[in-house]
């Protein structure tokens, strides 16, 4: 059996970026992915409508195409196939929240440590955006932003009355074509898969080109059930189950990187028990699974009265074109940290609000038609502070289709989280009302999004699981490479940071091979 230099479990933002960077450095890599190959040009229901399907249910994949069936079976490319591509850098304040705000947890690295790697990744994937000069939202290497939509401009004017900025969104989606990828054609279905790869996905943009180096292999349909550690306290590879046949297999490697996405990475490490690590691999600190810190969001639905009754136009674009960046750090408040606001990412495939319109028959249809051009959804994202009551563990009483224990999430909202949620909801309503909106609904409770934490990065092995290079404190040739390593969440979408950490870690791993430390 071949022994690879590096085995990466997972092919999403972290695994895909890392694999390409290592392969280009001459490191022999195998990516082990639990899902099937995905042909982005033919596999997705990108432009299908609800009325095309029984019960108005739109499957992600076209009928008869396998993929994204469960948490352990996503497909080559992982979540980057279905993400919205929002790509923010974390700012200096985000890395040192405990020092600055006295709450949360500091990262063991600073913004300046990651800034060069943000630039590398932005140039590779193509991030559109504007250089806005905001201290908490650092500028990057951008191609030109997409124009704001009419409704964005209305909200921008309303927010300005309250002293709140509205800026063009930054996304890993091409606003101008490159030699290998076309520009976005604004079909408005970004989270249903991009069938031209104008939106970044790790398979098309990072891994497929890296295959040409001869240093990368991709093993798909292989659901990893264990990371193997030997008596010398070194990982030697992984054991997996074939997704279709359930047959067992093994991959051997000198280094293993777990990059399954936050919750599944934690679950895999917790399943990988041994005499050395009876409570989960690399868990001598007891911190594995602790301090789960997903973003929380709410939601306000409204109609911009200026647009009620106007002609319907195709203005979906690539969903949200604008963003309300954090503006609370310099304002008086009774909670720590802050929030940002994504909005206007509804499309014609999701019009559940129509059920609440008044009327019957012709009058009902007319009320829906009148309000369709005016509908807008506001989704503020808040930063949850770490707490030990929020964690990931395994549920052995609910095995999945592979016979493996399910990952169980426990989230407990603390006082700071609830205060922040209430305030970000209030500001959302205030901005919409200042924009002349008719409020339809306001979320009463937070819901989670962007799963982060549980495998915390830190300098102290007693209070963290991996070090500043995302390498296990306990096992010298084990790395973790996804949002689980975040010590604090920020309010910003995490994917660009995961990719920058992966590019940075590739340097560390290749140097350790060269020095003989691996």
The percentage helix is: 10-25%
User: Structural class per helix/strand content?
Assistant: alpha/beta
Q: Write down the CATH class.
A: Alpha Beta
Q: How many domains make up the coordinates?
A: 1
Polypeptide structure, described:
With about 525 residues, the protein is of the alpha/beta class. The protein has one domain: FAD/NAD(P)-binding domain (3-Layer(bba) Sandwich). The protein contains ten helices and 19 strands. Strands 5, 10, 11, 12, 13, 14, 17 and 18 form an eight-stranded antiparallel sheet that branches. Strands 1, 2, 6, 7, 8, 9 and 19 form a seven-stranded mixed sheet that branches. β8 and β9 form a beta hairpin. The protein is globular and about 70 Å long. About 50% of the residues are buried. The model has no long low-confidence stretch (mean pLDDT about 95).
Task: Tag the structure with descriptive keywords.
518 residues; alpha/beta; 10 helices; FAD/NAD(P)-binding domain; eight-stranded antiparallel β-sheet; seven-stranded mixed β-sheet
Topology of helices and strands:
Layout: E1 3-9, H1 13-24, E2 29-32, H2 92-95, H3 97-101, H4 111-125, E3 127-128, E4 142-143, H5 150-161, E5 167-168, H6 202-211, E6 216-219, E7 222-229, E8 235-242, E9 248-258, H7 262-271, E10 295-297, E11 300-304, E12 322-324, E13 339-343, H8 362-371, E14 375-382, E15 391-399, E16 405-410, H9 415-434, E17 437-442, E18 447-449, E19 478-480, H10 495-515
Parallel strand pairs: 1-2, 1-9, 2-6, 3-4, 9-19
Antiparallel strand pairs: 5-12, 7-8, 8-9, 10-14, 10-18, 11-14, 11-17, 12-13, 13-14, 15-16
Helix pairs in contact: 1-6, 1-10, 4-10, 5-9
């Amino acid at each position: 059996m071949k022994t690879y230099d590096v085995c990466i479990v997972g092919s999403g933002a972290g695994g895909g970026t890392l694999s390409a960077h290592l392969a280009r450095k001459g490191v022999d890599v195998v990516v082990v992915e639990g899902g099937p190959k995905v042909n982005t040009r033919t596999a997705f229901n990108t432009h299908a409508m609800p009325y095309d399907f029984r019960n108005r249910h739109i499957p992600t994949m076209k009928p008869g195409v396998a993929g994204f069936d469960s948490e352990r079976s996503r497909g080559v490319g992982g979540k980057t196939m279905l993400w919205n591509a929002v790509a923010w850098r974390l700012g200096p304040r985000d890395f040192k929240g405990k020092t600055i705000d006295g709450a949360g947890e500091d990262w063991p690295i600073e913004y300046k440590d990651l800034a060069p790697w943000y630039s590398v990744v932005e140039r590779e994937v193509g991030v559109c955006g504007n250089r806005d000069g905001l201290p908490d939202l650092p500028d990057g290497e951008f191609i030109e932003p997409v124009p704001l939509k009419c409704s964005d401009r209305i909200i921008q004017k309303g927010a300005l009355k309250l002293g709140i900025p509205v800026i063009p969104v930054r996304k890993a989606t091409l606003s101008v074509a490159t030699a290998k990828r076309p520009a976005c054609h604004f079909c408005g279905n970004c989270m249903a898969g991009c069938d031209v790869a104008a939106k970044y996905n790790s398979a098309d943009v990072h891994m497929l080109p890296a295959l040409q180096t001869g240093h990368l292999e991709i093993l798909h349909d292989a659901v990893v059930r264990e990371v193997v550690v030997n008596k010398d306290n070194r990982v030697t590879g992984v054991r997996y189950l074939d997704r279709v046949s359930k047959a067992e297999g093994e991959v051997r490697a000198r280094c293993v990187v777990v990059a399954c996405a936050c919750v599944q990475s934690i679950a895999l490490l917790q399943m990988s028990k041994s005499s050395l690590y009876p409570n989960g691999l690399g868990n001598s600190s007891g911190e594995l699974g602790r301090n789960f810190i997903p973003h929380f969001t709410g939601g306000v639905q409204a109609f911009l009265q200026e647009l009620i009754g106007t002609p319907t136009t195709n203005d979906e674009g690539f969903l949200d074109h604008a963003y309300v960046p954090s503006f609370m750090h310099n304002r008086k408040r009774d909670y720590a940290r802050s929030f940002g606001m994504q909005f206007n990412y509804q499309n014609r495939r999701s019009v559940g609000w129509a059920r609440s319109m008044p009327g019957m028959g012709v009058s009902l249809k007319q009320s829906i038609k009148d309000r369709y051009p005016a509908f807008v959804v506001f989704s503020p994202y808040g930063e949850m502070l770490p707490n030990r009551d929020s964690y990931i563990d395994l549920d052995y009483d609910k095995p999945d289709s592979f016979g493996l224990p399910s990952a169980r999430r426990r989230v407990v909202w603390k006082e700071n989280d609830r205060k922040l949620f209430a305030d970000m909801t209030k500001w959302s309503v205030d901005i919409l009302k200042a924009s002349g909106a008719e409020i339809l609904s306001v979320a009463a409770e937070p819901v989670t999004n962007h799963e982060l934490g549980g495998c915390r990065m830190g300098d102290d092995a007693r209070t963290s699981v991996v070090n500043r290079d995302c390498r296990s404190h306990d096992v010298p040739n084990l790395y973790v490479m996804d949002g689980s390593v975040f010590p604090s969440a920020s309010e910003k979408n995490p994917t660009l940071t995961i990719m920058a950490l992966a590019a940075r870690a590739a340097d560390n791993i290749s140097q350790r091979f060269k020095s003989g430390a691996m």
